[in-house]
Design brief:
alpha+beta, Neuraminidase, 6-stranded antiparallel beta sheet, 72 strands, globular, disordered N terminus
């Protein structure tokens, strides 16, 4: 065996080199290149050859950098639970953690003197602000360079001058070629130690300028002047740029310079560029590896990736689609059947045929979205039923008789497949919603009719539509005045029940009261029924002498087992009845011969849905709770069996139940449990990566706002990047490949979010104290405790909570009895302590040491506290400068928490004479219309109570002068808000041009492992028909930049400009409240306000 080993290694190396692996993030030092592959760090000579693996930890190691003397290797890894800077000997050895930021890290490399430099967002300031942090590997001490928003850097040989990048899409994570919005990467030069502002280089060069690298009087960098990032250079003080590479197939990525040579990633390869000769060549690399992450593995909890669960027609099994796989599961010991789809296909929305012999599923495979049939016994290969149509397919709906399969697709298409003949036809194409208009497609018991819930007018409210399958006759049976949904036929074919939002009870009931943002209408839905034939008696009608006798009623019910009556379309909408139960937030409805099943859920966040039953009782109909925490339910076509899916933890599905449709659940549900919790599936990572690549490409084509893909040859783009698929060695490689492909679309909102990235399952969870710490020779000091709204004690940092005796300047002597001497000691002592009581021993100058108990927080909350500290400081500055006349609020994003923040802050300041709404670094969302609506309200009259001060109508409207602050990373809906302010002339926008992420999206295009390759879907145009914002951004009315050095020193030129504008405005146009005229005597007419 010992003799065979060299031959085996050679064979492995030859096998690896035949296809190569995927090489990323190279770092050059001398004749060695360190790079990332398989989530580990490797080293290879610049001449190429067999690479040496340097790390093997389960966590990913990224962003390598080699020390100037070549002895140490720095990199970023999450060994301690969060991504931080680590260092290890180049010759091998145990890594040690150097940084403890608890944020996003971008390692830049070493300064000439051996200090490390990295970009970090762990800084007090608006979201997304970066700082360059210098770290001494020997002592662990760090300092920030005085340059706001600097995120990449290179130093000259003296270490006294640096060239740095400001902004850039690498900060937002977007991937877009030809980007020319406000967040373009800018190149600056700065002299350390000189109290002078940084100088921007090449400000008129229309290109993103990033990854600066200084060498012998010139700066080498990435620039996309020709549309794609390539290597360029320019003189160190600015001047004409020179192109060094002109790649047109793949971007130049992650360049690293050392001694006149630059190594960079190109596609999946590494290349070496020699500055002196201009020679550019590929480095041939072989990895000797077992490629463990390519190997098949078992997924123990595929239900964490559940996409659908549908009950079989007989009600004795559930067809589960999860992680692209399909299984048929039952109660008891019956065999669970795995359906044998292709390894590189994604099966979803699977249903079982009427005879139980076939599984019908949507199959996404090789960039196609088709409908396939597979044997339900898990045996032979499947058969294609409906070919790809170029649209994303949504769902399948099997008819009760098993003859028909209705199916929906993007483009508003409803298709109908006759399973026996294989004939497929378009049943209809929705006119008013061409995306996913069908919230329900329901068959009648005799399979003759379909009931749809979809918009049928430009108002976009869902209406109930009936279609006769044989004739194609169509009737819209509810109006567009009310949202109607969840249609359900009765088994006897006489009634069509549905839900509709027709109940409007306002809360509050008047416009008075603090922070009254207008009425909210909860519990809107009621239950309605349409008589499908004339002359029917409503089952919930009160009993009277005209009711049939019990025997007559029994005979009538017996007759419904025969042919069901046809729907009488004439006069159908006039035969409308209301079920006499209270309104609620009903979501879903099903009809049993003796009862209705109704799902409802409270409007409050975090509430769980309830399933109730309503006996069809003419005397006293009353809803009775059947089950809580229900995620989904359904009845079989014969109404005999009930399927229940219960909510689990973290948004996942819990238990699945099959049982006879009950009026009340049995005391024990053991026999109803579907045996699925122990289901596991084998995963072929290489096949999955191939499928996800094709799926991301396909869904970009299907979901993009532009069917023409912005003039790009999308099939050719796929072919180009598909050649790199065999090179992938881990999930992170796929993310890198998707990012490169997506960039060809040239649109923002183009982040890649991987799901199953390699991680250490045993890594601890870090925590923090909500304060900035200072490291000194004698230990760790509390330098600054983050401030929040002083009137919200529960929002305070841990060290400011009531009962905690800690102050700025205190030295932390010990945590839970463990003595501290360094930042590493503090981080180690706080691991796994978030939310737990922790004992601090503190030393305070001039006082005896004391102990106090505190509860640390997680790192997300710590980041939020840093942001809130900046908000509080800015608010205080505005309050002081504006002398109480000017209000201020910041919107971090445009989501639920941000509208809550707006309501809290705006209504506390609505009576100010001036108001600054700050959307700098706003991350987007969708609430711009809510906020603009409040700002559009205008005072037109004043109430004058006898015993109180006058106040205005409209109540709590803002009467003063408005300013909006925006900057380069105002993003998405933050930009829409700024554009709306400009278009509606509500006030000036002050700051800089925004990012240009103007096309919104839904993030429905999830990959099978829950990863996401985002694609922009919904574009906007203005009243002149001009496309808004995308790729360009919103230009300010008054342009003011916050220069990097002055801003780092505490200045805020944009805020100062806003305050000065409002001061001037208030002087020129003071906000006054008029005095009332004398009350006229009786008989004298008042004014009508016109």
């Amino acid at each position: 065996m010992r003799l065979l080993l060299p031959f085996l290694l050679l064979a492995v190396a030859q096998t690896a080199s035949a296809t190569g692996a995927y090489y990323r993030q190279p770092a050059l030092h001398g004749d060695q290149v360190v790079f990332v592959a398989e989530g580990d760090l490797w080293s290879v000579p610049v001449s190429g050859g067999q690479a040496t693996r340097l790390t093997t930890h389960p966590a990913q190691e990224t962003q390598p950098a080699v020390s100037p003397d070549g002895r140490e290797l720095a990199f970023v890894a999450s060994y301690g639970g969060d991504e931080e800077v680590h260092v290890m000997p180049m010759s091998g050895g145990q890594p040690r953690q150097l940084s403890f930021d608890g944020g996003r890290i971008a390692l830049q490399g070493y300064m000439p003197g051996g200090e490390l430099v990295y970009a970090s967002d762990s800084v007090v300031g608006p979201s997304g602000r970066r700082v360059l942090r210098v770290l001494d590997p020997a002592t662990g001490e760090s300092r920030d360079l005085p340059l706001a928003d600097a995120n990449e850097a290179s130093f000259d040989s003296s270490g006294k001058r640096l060239w740095f990048t400001r902004f850039g899409l690498h900060v937002s994570g977007d991937n877009a070629l030809d980007y020319r919005g406000g967040a373009m990467a800018q190149l600056y030069r700065f002299n350390l130690g000189a109290d002078q502002e940084a100088t921007r280089l090449a400000p008129n060069w229309n290109a993103n300028q990033s990854r600066p690298m200084w060498w012998q009087g010139r700066v080498y960098l990435l620039a996309d002047a020709d549309g794609r990032p390539n290597l360029w250079s320019l003189p160190e003080s600015g001047g004409d740029p020179v192109a060094l590479t002109r790649h047109t197939d793949f971007d130049v990525r992650s360049p690293s310079l050392d001694q006149g040579r630059i190594v960079y990633q190109h596609g999946a390869d590494l290349r070496l560029y020699d500055i002196a000769s201009g020679q550019d060549r590929k480095i041939d690399i072989q990895l000797v590896s077992d490629f463990e992450q390519r190997q098949p593995r078992w997924l123990k909890k595929p239900l964490d990736y559940l996409e659908s669960a549908h009950m079989s027609p007989a009600g004795d099994a559930v067809v589960v689609s999860a992680r692209g796989k399909v299984a048929i599961a039952s109660t008891g010991s019956r065999r669970r059947i795995d359906i044998a789809g292709p390894a590189d296909a994604r099966l979803r929305e699977a249903v079982l045929s009427q005879d139980g012999k076939q599984v019908l599923a949507i199959q996404d495979h090789d960039g196609l979205s088709e409908i396939w049939s597979y044997p339900a016994d898990g045996s032979s290969p499947g058969q294609r039923l409906v070919a790809d149509s170029g649209e994303h397919r949504w769902r399948l709906y099997l008819s009760p008789d098993g003859r028909w399969l209705a199916h929906t697709a993007k483009g508003g298409r409803l298709g109908l497949l006759e399973l026996a003949s294989g004939k497929n036809r378009l049943l209809e194409r929705a006119e008013h919603d061409r995306d996913d208009p069908y919230s329900a497609v329901v068959w009648s018991s005799d399979s003759r009719y379909l009931a749809l819930a979809r918009p049928d007018s430009a108002q976009q409210r869902h209406q109930i539509v009936l279609i006769a399958v044989s004739s194609g006759r169509k009737a819209t049976v509810t109006s567009n005045r009310y949202e109607s949904y969840s249609p359900a036929f009765s088994a006897d074919g006489q009634w069509l029940y549905f839900l509709s939002n027709r109940n409007f009870e306002p809360t509050p009931s008047s416009p008075w009261g603090d922070r009254n943002t207008g009425p909210m209408f909860d519990r809107r839905a009621r239950i309605y029924a349409l008589a499908l034939q004339p002359g029917l008696r409503f089952p919930f009608a009160p009993r009277d002498e005209l009711m049939p006798t019990a025997k007559e009623d029994t005979d009538a019910k017996a007759d419904v087992t025969k042919d069901l009556p046809a729907i009488a379309f004439e006069g159908l909408t006039d035969r409308l009845f209301e079920v006499p139960v209270p309104a609620a937030n009903y979501q879903q409805l099903a009809v049993h011969p003796e009862r209705l099943y109704v799902l409802d859920q409270d409007a409050r966040p975090g509430s769980k849905a309830r399933l109730s039953v309503l006996a069809i009782d003419a005397e006293a109909p009353k809803l009775a709770l059947l089950a809580e925490g229900v995620a989904d339910f359904s009845l079989t076509a014969d109404r005999k069996r009930l399927f229940l899916a219960r909510q689990g933890d973290a948004g996942n599905i819990g238990e699945l139940l099959l049982l006879d449709a009950p009026e009340k659940l049995p005391e024990t549900l053991d026999q109803a449990q579907v045996r699925i919790a122990d289901w596991s599936v084998q995963i072929n990572p290489v096949a999955e990566w191939r499928q996800m690549f094709a799926d991301a490409w396909r869904m970009h084509r299907s979901f993009s706002f532009d069917p023409g893909m912005r003039g790009q040859d999308w099939p050719a783009i796929r072919q180009r990047f598909e050649t790199l698929l065999p090179r992938l060695a881990d999930r992170a490689d796929l993310d890198d490949l998707l990012a490169q492909m997506m960039a060809e679309h040239g649109i923002l909102h183009s982040q890649v979010r991987g799901s199953e990235l390699r991680a250490d399952p045993d890594a601890p969870t870090p925590s923090a104290l909500g304060a900035a710490m200072r490291i000194a020779a004698d230990g760790v000091y509390i330098e600054h405790i983050y401030r929040t709204d002083p009137e919200l004690p529960s929002e305070r940092a841990p060290l400011l909570q009531p009962g905690v005796d800690a102050r700025e300047g205190d030295r932390i002597v010990a945590v839970n009895g463990r003595a501290l001497a360094s930042r590493a000691d503090l981080a180690a002592a706080l691991q796994q302590q978030a939310g737990q009581q922790v004992l601090l021993q503190l030393s305070r100058k001039g006082a005896a040491a004391h102990r106090t108990v505190v509860r640390p927080i997680d790192l997300d909350r710590e980041a939020q506290l840093r942001y809130l500290d900046w908000v509080q400081g800015t608010r205080d500055a505005v309050e002081q400068t504006g002398q109480g006349r000017i209000g201020y609020l910041h919107l971090r994003a445009m989501g639920p928490g941000d509208i809550a923040s707006f309501v809290r802050d705006f209504y506390a300041q609505f009576d100010r004479e001036g108001l600054i709404i700050d959307v700098r670094r706003n991350r987007g969302g969708n609430i711009d219309s809510w906020i603009i609506e409040k700002l559009l309200r205008r005072t037109w009259a004043y109430w004058d109570p006898v015993d109180a001060a006058p106040y205005w109508n409209q109540q709590q409207s803002f009467r003063g002068h408005l300013v909006v602050l925006a900057d380069q990373f105002t993003y998405s809906d933050g930009e829409t808000f700024a554009a709306g302010i400009k278009a509606l002339k509500l006030g000036p926008v002050i700051g800089m041009r925004t990012a240009g992420a103007g096309i919104w999206l839904s993030d429905r295009n999830r990959l099978l492992d829950k990863g996401l390759a985002r694609v922009a879907e919904y574009a906007q145009y203005d009243r002149q028909g001009r496309w808004l914002i995308e790729g360009t951004g919103v230009a300010p009315d008054i342009e003011v930049d916050n220069p990097p050095h002055a801003t780092a020193l505490g200045e805020d030129a944009q805020l100062a400009a806003a305050l000065q504008y409002l001061a001037d405005k208030l002087k020129a146009e003071p906000v006054i409240q008029p005095d009332s005229q004398p009350i006229p005597p009786r008989g004298q007419r008042a004014h009508d306000g016109s």
